[in-house]
């Protein structure tokens, strides 16, 4: 019988061993991207009263296939127990540890326009390990405005406040033309992770991680799939399979 093994936990991370240089397994990017999905599913399962969960059950709850899930979790050294599955609490702890969510990370938001207001007003980040601690804008008319208990400050204060508040992650929600300058200020203030909503590529030093969110790109990818599905059902001559079926029915 295979035993549940948790290879990377706060107590036994490889980095805790003498001589080890890194506390982290070398995880594929795609695995890292799925870990938050597993975590969300595990929290829901835990809140529903589940103590253990099979790989199939967790895969279904996370919307991935179970072979992929087992492979992902094996990268963390977690194999579950045959016939029992994964211990929900342990797996939550392990994923949170690997994602660094056992430490709450301070986030600042730059650009309090339409998008920035929506992000600043969303209260769901805190329960997932992030606290927005400061808001910045360049528009004097917005400086001083209160959103969810935070006062919008002038962008010129960012450097000082980022250091004071120990800001780890900066979110950019300014127009694209301002984003690079904002990124430069964040980097100068020691911020090494940036989430960029502006539709542009940022130039940053190698030690800074940038993630980009672009809903238009997601829609364009869905548009490709719509296009592909339509072309799969299309027949030579430009007729769709459905239309051809109708014509045949009429002719028969
Ligand atoms: N990723 C996505 O899916 C997505 C969706 C919507 C919008 N966006 C992008 O997000 C950004 C914001 O969109 P929006 O609709 O909220 O725009 P907006 O014009 O309503 O707001 C932009 C805000 O940035 C501020 N700003 C401008 N220059 C600044 C600077 N140098 N420093 C600090 N603040 C500055 C402005 O004063 C304004 O408050 C845009 O780049 C837009 O293209 C992305």
TrEMBL record:
Record keywords: Cytoplasm, DNA-binding, NAD, Repressor, Transcription, Transcription regulation
UniProt keyword annotation of rRNA-binding present: no
One Pfam entry name: CoA_binding
Residue sites binding NAD(+) per the record: 111-116
DNA-binding region: 37-76
InterPro entries reported in the protein's UniProt record: CoA-bd (IPR003781), NAD(P)-bd_dom_sf (IPR036291), Rex_actinobacterial-type (IPR058236), Rex_DNA-bd_C_dom (IPR009718), Tscrpt_rep_Rex (IPR022876), WH-like_DNA-bd_sf (IPR036388), WH_DNA-bd_sf (IPR036390)
NCBIfam families attached to this UniProt entry: PRK05472.1-3, PRK05472.2-1, PRK05472.2-2, PRK05472.2-3, PRK05472.2-4, PRK05472.2-5
Function noted in UniProt: Modulates transcription in response to changes in cellular NADH/NAD(+) redox state.
Protein name (Swiss-Prot/TrEMBL): Redox-sensing transcriptional repressor Rex
Species of the source: Paractinoplanes lichenicola
